[in-house]
Hints:
By secondary structure, this protein is an alpha/beta fold. It has one domain (2-231): Glycerol-3-phosphate (1)-acyltransferase (3-Layer(aba) Sandwich). The protein has 8 helices and 7 strands; from the N terminus they run H-H-E-E-H-E-H-E-H-E-H-E-H-E-H. The chain has helices at 2-24, 31-48, 76-84, 104-110, 121-136, 161-169, 181-184, 215-231, and strands spanning 50-55, 67-70, 90-95, 114-116, 140-143, 173-179, 195-201. It has a 7-stranded mixed sheet with strand order 1-7-6-2-5-3-4, sandwiched between helices. Strand 3, helix 4 and strand 4 form a beta-alpha-beta unit. The longest helix has 23 residues, at 2-24. The two termini are 30 Å apart.
Amino acid sequence: MHVLRLFLLVVSTLIVAPTVTAICLFERDGKVGYRLARWWMAFNLWMSGVRVKVSGLERLDRSRQYVFMSNHRSAADIVAIGWALWDYQIRFVAKKELQRVPVFGWGLWALKNIIIDRSNHVQAVRSYAVAGQRIRRGISVVVFPEGTRGEGAELLPFKKGGFVLAIETGTPIAPVAIVGTSQVMPKNSLRVESGEVEVRVGEPIDAAAVPLKEKDRLVQGVRDSITRLMQRGVEVSPAHGTPSS
């Protein structure tokens, strides 16, 4: 079964990634391509037997954009949060090394995700400026502030680029906790296990009200919120149904 799941994941990716890439060549922000990519996420969750339960969406205003900040434990986090935030056009802040992953890297680039070169401060600043432009055009941004996949309930130190982005664009930060992805797809493994994942959305935090010089206060507030969501969660709704297109 594990081999079959991996085979279907690879085949679907080989079909969808070039298609998305071709569509996005003619789009400024990749919005149509992203809609197709969402269905790829839905198919792979269904095929893998992974159920995603979502809570806290009522805290959000669907008419506005957010900087979503989440813990990061598995490659499956990307699919889980994409499914959970189905009603939003989202792009991820991703390290440039991920562009080297065959096929996946094409889609990452084509969908106009925010690629960061952490070894080049000037380039990183430019990338966040591009993220600001995308936010103003109706796209929300997902940031994993730990910068890499951690383990367990203890969060790694947070990188601050996403917080500066939120403050400078006046975009609220929505804290998110993803629970269970490390079981369905362990770190450094390609195996996908069936199981249940929870995506818990916390109360948005008004980054516009925080002066840039006080960003450390914002960082701590978001960190505390994600930690509480990871540990206690909130009331979880029934399994996500089939979303509207």
